[in-house]
């Protein structure tokens, strides 16, 4: 019998020509969600059991979902992307399910998006645009990027791509990362500093760390209090790394000049989320990592991860829960 793969993100159906050949070449039958929106836990509970793999987006792979699907033969959750906070990785490991990501496919897209948000803030894009639409012609000086210090928090693939673009804009760059790539920092003359020093010194703080128990609300009232009143905060990482009420408070009371947000604590944000009403916030709908190039690259790479693993290969750099290998191989033999 052909193994089934659930292609969970609804929009991927439109680009089946990108990853379909990889999966079909692996002898796989593809199944798609029934609705054209992000799958809920209930929908995963109904549709995932029976599939050998999920080509996964941001839908919730809870312990209940993984337990039921693993009992029915699930062996791989292959994220088309690099963040895996939507997957209960401990549950996957417990049930012998490998979780993979697609490193190297979307960091440049996020870096470009980061500068879109930053430029929109610094150049008053939204206020000018909406004023002109209303027939107003308000001309006032906006902010430069050149000469302004860019503080990169989380100096991995995306953080480094943002740092290089910052240098191209003439911005002095500093970075914080507990596991920083010191060679890269030295090569590009980027001082590595402690987080509090970065917050104090930066004119722009941009967040690129993963969502982990240790990074939850790492940006809070205290850390925002260290930032310059004239500074901007850009978050394209995950909503949970910022304490939203504290951010609102700082922005509302002019203790921070502005924020560019691609991610929120709750997505989509509730309509009464007060951040939505502020003029010094620019927002996008968690689209930083998804341009048409990165979308295709992520989908193809996730399909390749599935094809490799269904053939018994172990793509080391892509597997998040390396410790599951023995259990995973034992299940694959059954
Ligand atoms: N908005 C989007 O569409 C989008 C797209 C891609 C990735 N992301 C998010 O961006 C994150 C980073 O992606 P990446 O590809 O650069 O990942 P990466 O793994 O290459 O880099 C993350 C870096 O964060 C560092 N880090 C870990 N704990 C930290 C801490 N407490 N403080 C500061 N740094 C810390 C790590 O050492 C690592 O160098 C992802 O985990 C994901 O959540 C968002």
UniProtKB/TrEMBL annotation:
CDD domains, per the entry: PGDH_like_2 (cd12172)
Keywords: NAD, Oxidoreductase
Record's keyword annotation contains Coiled coil: no
Domain D-isomer specific 2-hydroxyacid dehydrogenase NAD-binding per the UniProt entry, residue ranges: 115-288
Pfam families linked: 2-Hacid_dh, 2-Hacid_dh_C
Occurrences of domain D-isomer specific 2-hydroxyacid dehydrogenase catalytic (ranges): 26-317
GO molecular function, one term: oxidoreductase activity, acting on the CH-OH group of donors, NAD or NADP as acceptor
Protein family according to the UniProt entry: Belongs to the D-isomer specific 2-hydroxyacid dehydrogenase family.
Official protein name in the record: D-3-phosphoglycerate dehydrogenase
Naturally occurring in which organism (per UniProt): Fimbriiglobus ruber
